[in-house]
Every structure is written in C-alpha cells, then in structure tokens.
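Run log, item B.
One chain of 153 residues. Sequence copied directly from the ordering sheet:
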Amino acid sequence: MSAEKRLKELNIILPESTAPAGSYAKVVILDGIAHLSGQGPRNSDGSPITGQVPSACSLEEAIAAARNVGLYSLSALQTELGSLDRVQQIIRTFGMVNSAPGFSEHPKVIDGFSNLMIDIFGEAGRGARSAVGMSSLPFNISVEVEMTVKLFD
C-alpha cells in the first residue's frame, strides 16, 4: 500500500510544514537520499512542545511529542517531494531527548517517532536508529529527531 493511502486509512492529516528556525534547509536531497534536518514537536497553535523528560514532561507526553515530530518530519518530506510515495526506505533516525539527569528511557520516547514511520511505510519504515539524551535542546523542546531516507528513482 502507498504511504499516501496509508495516511488516509489511518485518518492522519499532516500539519503544515514550518519554516526553518535558522540558516539551513529542512530537507536536502543528494544522490537519491533525503536528509531531513532535526524537527521539533509543536502544539496545535504552532508553539513548541517543551520540557525536560521526565521532570517537566512525562514519559507518555514525550512519546506523544516524538510521534508529533514524526508528523512534522513527514510534512517537511511531503512538501519537498510532492508525495510520500517516493520514499523507498527509512535509512536512519537520530532521536534526541531533552533529559533530566538520571533519565534512561530514551528508546521508549523515540519509539513514538519510529512506530509512526512503521505504521506509514511498513517494514520500509524500520531503519537504523540512535536514541540519546541531551541536557538541553533548542527552545527547550522535549524531543528532536533527524532522519535519512532512500528515495525511489
């Protein structure tokens, strides 16, 4: 099944892609590979979802924030490509969690992102992955994820 059809089947409406927060491109395509800059989670009003995990943002909220990052990543990719059906394989995901000292469940948080990719692309959504903790992230966002994607020719 195509990724676009899968979005409809799951009743997922992607948010509008936002402008970059600095001097960079959201997506760079080179030799059939799309490199996505780090994306952060946003509330419905466009404000960032913030807070260190788990002191100011619960584990469950952080998992939901990571899924939200996935939606914004897909939106940026769809805007650049015209269709998510051009995605052949998620190659690599690098997930960063704004972590309080002692927090160690980074993989559970980033599963919110990874599970969305698998829901949309099936096994082609399961790529290599790192999930790490950071003492802070830009704008105090709770989660940031970057992704590398192989495109169909």
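Observations after the first pass:
- The two ends are 18 Å apart (CA to CA).
- DSSP finds three helices and five strands in the chain.
Flagged for discussion on Thursday.
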